[in-house]
């Protein structure tokens, strides 16, 4: 039995690197420090749903074949395709991503990563107005005001608060965990009272759209770190917050613009914006201006709703305005553990972060045209390679319908929805458990991933599989050139 | 009681979906986590349903049967929330508004009670949509 310390968790953009893993007979048997999702992965990854041999669809069914056969079949498809898409890349190492860029260039395909359906709009916003940001270490030690806007870290990045923000012990800012627990206990008492009262008054009036969670606005002038959540529904994170603002769906842009006006001491001649009474916004604006080091973390609640990248643009502009009065940062809550790496690698190799079209022999980037979602919806592709992502489960149905019309190659450790739909399926080793590599945390800091157990016999890493396909593609292309 | 409710559809992450996806897309954890839909308790009352009743959610893209679950953390009138996954994507708007990003949150939908209808498994859903 060996205990391995400081293992990096290869799941979300937090990339927690303090996980302790106990290994016995090449199996993970115990975990420490990880969140529920992390335990699910480390303890559940060897589950029955894993493929161990390459599969090829024959007569409508996926049947096991040799690695050589699968590599050749995949390379044939890609070498002969006119406009293939190569999609995914966010749950694998940057080493594999690098081979992906070379493969895309070699076959003249469209290289796109999952940012297109998560923080693609954030990147577009940043390209418009830049971004004032910091590392999570800075935030951990110094930030006294944390805002989560349109994101619910408790569900999607479960240890974000504990490691980087309100519940972490920073050098200059203390953890708010104890005071949160006290508040929780007081609340539990209040809740009992409230539910008793509800029985008496079952026709209670509907609650207002925006509400203070931690009591009255003085919560916002309390000492220590403050936690503010802005969302369309009261999420789990909102329940922990000192102040929660509930915005009507699709109205974040308006609320952000209103805040900009208030921060610049302008008066608003309306009573509410996006369902939020102006006095609540005024309280929020005061808190923003009066902090010493504030941060806005934002998620899909801004990037996937009406306005999309314009929401991000205006959020960054708000932060820029705030920097004339105090210190303020903004950061996207990147989801998959190495989606940031996918953007970084793609940028340094091709000049563009996602949606890169190599079909003309040089990289081109025009979101809306060269992004894989649009290529799929216009049905312009003639083959696809999906790696370390699951568009079969996560893309709108119409896009997937066009994807399965053409040969579909899938590289993934799991038999996920895309693999179930695939024509050629490669089982891959789990990066960060069975192979090591590098991943970029949400603040763009590269963190090493560790191998803690060996992959099952015959199962290769993403990088190795891609290299084999690339080599075979080159051979086929050379042969084709000779014939021509 | 109303036959049909017009609501705003949100899709997104839940911790159960996060755990389920790590167990595998074919796992029952993933099925339980993703083939459901959070609703406001008053809205559920309007449709005459309780938690764990099946509902049918319809958008211009299609419809899907899901299990309705009362949203535990306060009122969300007029909103429904489906965890990311193939069930949500059976009805999600694919309008990318020319930037590559579909509209996963904040699109209109209709909800009706469907106690007699079955929730498809992931295999059945993929088969019905993609023939595989
Ligand atoms: S918060 Fe994210 S990186 Fe950290 S342990 Fe949980 S899933 Fe892993």
Structural features, described:
The complex is a heterodimer of chains A (484) and B (132). Chain A is globular, with a radius of gyration of 24 Å. By secondary structure, chain A is α/β, with parallel strands linked by helices. In chain A, 39% of the residues lie in helices and 19% in strands. In chain B, strands 1-5-2-4-3-6 form a six-stranded mixed beta barrel. Chain B is an alpha/beta fold. Chain B has a single domain (4-130), classed as Barwin-like endoglucanases (Beta Barrel), CATH 2.40.40. Chain B has five helices and six strands, in the order βααβαβββαβα. The radius of gyration of chain B is 14 Å and the shape is globular. Bound molecules: iron/sulfur cluster (SF4). Iron/sulfur cluster binds next to α1 of chain A.
Regarding CATH, which class of the largest domain in chain A?
Alpha Beta
Overall form of chain B? globular
CATH class of chain B: Mainly Beta
Number of helices of chain B: 5
Briefly summarize what is shown.
The complex is a heterodimer of chains A (484) and B (132). Chain A is 39% helix and 19% strand.
């Amino acid at each position: 039995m060996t205990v391995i310390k400081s293992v990096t968790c290869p799941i979300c953009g937090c990339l927690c690197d303090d996980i302790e893993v106990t290994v016995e007979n090449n199996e993970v048997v115990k975990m420490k420090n990880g969140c529920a999702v992390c335990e699910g992965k480390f303890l559940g990854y060897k589950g029955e749903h894993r493929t161990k041999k390459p599969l090829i669809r024959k007569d409508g069914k996926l049947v096991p074949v040799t690695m050589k056969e699968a590599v050749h079949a995949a390379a044939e498809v890609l070498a002969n395709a006119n406009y293939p898409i190569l999609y995914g890349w966010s749950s694998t190492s940057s080493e594999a991503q690098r081979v992906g860029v070379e493969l895309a260039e070699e076959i003249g395909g469209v290289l796109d990563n999952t940012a297109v359906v998560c923080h693609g709009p954030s990147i577009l916003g940043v390209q418009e107005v830049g971004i004032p940001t910091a590392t999570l270490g800075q935030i951990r030690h110094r930030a006294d005001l944390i805002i989560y806007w349109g994101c619910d870290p408790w569900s999607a990045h479960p240890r974000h608060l504990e490691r980087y923000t309100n519940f972490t012990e920073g050098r200059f800012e203390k953890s708010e965990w104890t005071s949160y627990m006290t508040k929780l206990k007081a609340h539990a008492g209040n809740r009992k009272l409230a539910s008793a009262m509800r029985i008496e008054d079952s026709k209670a009036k509907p609650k207002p759209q925006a509400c203070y969670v931690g009591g009255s606005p003085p919560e916002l002038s309390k000492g220590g770190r403050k936690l503010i959540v802005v969302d369309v529904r009261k999420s789990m994170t909102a329940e922990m917050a000192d102040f929660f603002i509930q915005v009507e769906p699709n109205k974040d842009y308006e609320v952000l613009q209103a805040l900009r006006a208030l921060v610049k001491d302008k008066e608003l001649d309306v009573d509410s914006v996006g369902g939020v009474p102006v006095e609540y916004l005024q309280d929020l604006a005061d808190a923003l201006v009066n902090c010493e080091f504030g941060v806005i973390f934002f998620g899909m609640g801004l990037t996937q709703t009406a306005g999309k990248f314009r929401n991000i643009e205006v959020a960054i502009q708000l932060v820029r305005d705030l920097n004339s009065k105090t210190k303020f940062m903004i950061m996207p809550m990147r989801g998959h553990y190495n989606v940031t790496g996918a953007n970084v690698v793609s940028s340094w190799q091709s000049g563009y972060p996602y949606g890169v079209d190599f079909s003309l022999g040089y990289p081109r980037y025009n979101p809306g045209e060269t992004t894989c979602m649009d290529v799929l919806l216009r049905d312009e592709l003639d083959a696809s390679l999906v790696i370390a992502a699951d568009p079969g489960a996560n893309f709108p149905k119409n896009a997937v319908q066009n994807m399965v019309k053409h040969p579909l190659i899938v590289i993934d450790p799991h038999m996920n929805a895309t693999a179930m739909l695939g024509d050629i399926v490669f089982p891959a080793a789990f990066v960060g458990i069975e192979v090591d590599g590098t991943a970029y945390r949400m603040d763009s800091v590269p963190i090493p991933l560790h191998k803690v157990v060996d992959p099952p016999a015959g199962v290769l890493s993403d990088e190795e599989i891609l290299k084999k396909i690339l080599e075979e593609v080159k051979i086929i292309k050379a042969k084709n050139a000779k014939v021509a | 009681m109303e036959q049909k409710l017009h609501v705003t559809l949100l899709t997104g992450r839940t911790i159960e979906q996060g755990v389920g996806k790590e167990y595998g897309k074919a796992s029952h954890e993933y099925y339980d986590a993703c083939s459901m839909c959070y609703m406001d308790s008053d809205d559920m009352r309007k449709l005459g349903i309780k938690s764990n009743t099946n509902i049918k959610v319809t958008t211009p893209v299609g419809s899907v049967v899901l299990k309705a679950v009362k949203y535990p953390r306060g009122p969300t009138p007029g909103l429904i929330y489906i965890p990311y996954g193939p069930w949500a994507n059976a009805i999600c708007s694919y309008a990318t508004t020319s930037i590559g990003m579909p509209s996963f949150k904040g699109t209109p939908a209709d909800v009706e009670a469907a106690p007699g209808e079955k929730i498809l498994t992931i295999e059945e859903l993929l088969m019905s949509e993609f023939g595989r």
